[in-house]
Amino acid sequence: MDPMLEGASWLDEELAGSTFADARLGQRLRRLLEQLGGAMGASVPLACQDWAATKAAYRFFDNDRVSEAEILAGHFAATASRLAATEGPILILHDTTEFTYHRVRPEPVGVIGQYPCRNTSYDRRQLYTVCGLLMHSSLGVTPDGLPLGLCAIKFWTRATFKGTTELKRHINPTRVPIEDKESLRWLENMRQSSALVADPARCIHIGDRESDIYELFVTAHELGTHFLVRSSVDRRADEGTQTIIAAMDQQPGQGEHWIAVRDDKGKESQAHLTIKYHRLQVLPPLAKRKRYPALALTVICADEQETPENRQPIHWRLITDLPVTCVDEAIEKIGWYALRWKIELFHKILKSGCRAEDAKLRSAERLVNLLALFCILAWRVFWLTMLNRTAPQASPRLVLTALEIRLLDQLVKNKTSSPSPTLAHYLTKIARLGGHLARAKDPPPGNMVMWRGLSRLTDIELGASLGMRLVGN
């Protein structure tokens, strides 16, 4: 096999399910992923290296026949294959993030909010407009924390912005249909994510307090899937005689649990939690009681008894449709919710590694297409980082080609003799290319050194391939 094609074999799997009507657009997408993946964090001109390739990239982002749906179709298909190859529950992590851009005119991109001016030379009552895009993503992970891929994604922006407080002065939000709210994105991503799995009952959709939406509970029931969200609304329970908080306050502590947490200074400590759980009949909001039925849901409370230094105490109130019959099952659900932080790390890779907010494209449509490409690259970096921790004994051929393995053997010398090098052995070598010291007591490499190492390996692989062709000629 041609070394250049062999080195990009992971792209074959991720783009096999692409749905472009014109095959040339699929070829351009592949080429852009190679270029941007080899120069992660660099600008489009630097990644493309010349004006012809840069202009082709700009034409791709501005093409009316290209959208985030076509760009991510192959990745969604590959994610479905990985989900089908795993056993047990699948955790679908949902979250929303913002991408801010500095533009003279916000209209071509849109706005995400208005905030008070910080410049003391201006009237403090003035507001300045923040230009940018919003993205709601859904990431499928295993209970061990291995990201299997994106299951759904939604981009949008706003022509104008009115804060929630301003809206509440004119209308009761509970009386607005969910179809007229931005919160509809939670339901749409749940439907799209569940459709990727043959058995939606395997999916547990996990969200923060923003996802405490009664319509989401009903949608999960209709789809035959499950949810686990952090509650923020003190809903009516039983026959309406009490609320969730009042009902849980009456429950005694049923168990204890210790988890490792870090304070504001990064110091790790053990948090002592008291666990309570109870099955309740949760009622819909009064304005929607004729539209939605009551649901039998489980509420899990995890409260830290002591007041720690340098951080807020943990007080989680989780709500789920999954049954909980013992303390161990409640602790399991708490551990699943703790994995929600993984999607925050994915967003960090997009912003810090891919430098998505440094893009200079002028319109929202072009930026969305570029962000869709970055999502594929960010997932792969995150996948390799977590694969090093969850499956260290796997074969290196799972993610590396023969050429990459040979290059790593030549570039990074072994610190210890290993008769059969494992995947973790070679992923650590990639991290060492990115600056990881790999000392005996060092933790496993993180995303930053991994993406730096991958970028260096890509450049070295390109030089080796060209050298082989020159020698051959």
UniProtKB/TrEMBL annotation:
Location of the Transposase Tn5 dimerisation domain:
376-459
| Domain Transposase Tn5-like N-terminal: from-to ranges | 9-66
Among Gene3D superfamilies, the record links this protein to:
Tn5 transposase, domain 1, Transferase Inhibitor Protein From Tn5, Chain, Transposase Inhibitor Protein From Tn5, Chain A, domain 1
InterPro entries per the record? RNaseH-like_sf, TN5-like_N_sf, Tn5_transposase, Tn5p-like, Transposase_Tn5, Transposase_Tn5-like_C, Transposase_Tn5-like_N
**Name the UniProt record assigns to this protein:** IS4 family transposase
Q: To which species is this protein native?
A: Microvirga tunisiensis
Taxonomically, what lineage is the organism? Bacteria, Pseudomonadati, Pseudomonadota, Alphaproteobacteria, Hyphomicrobiales
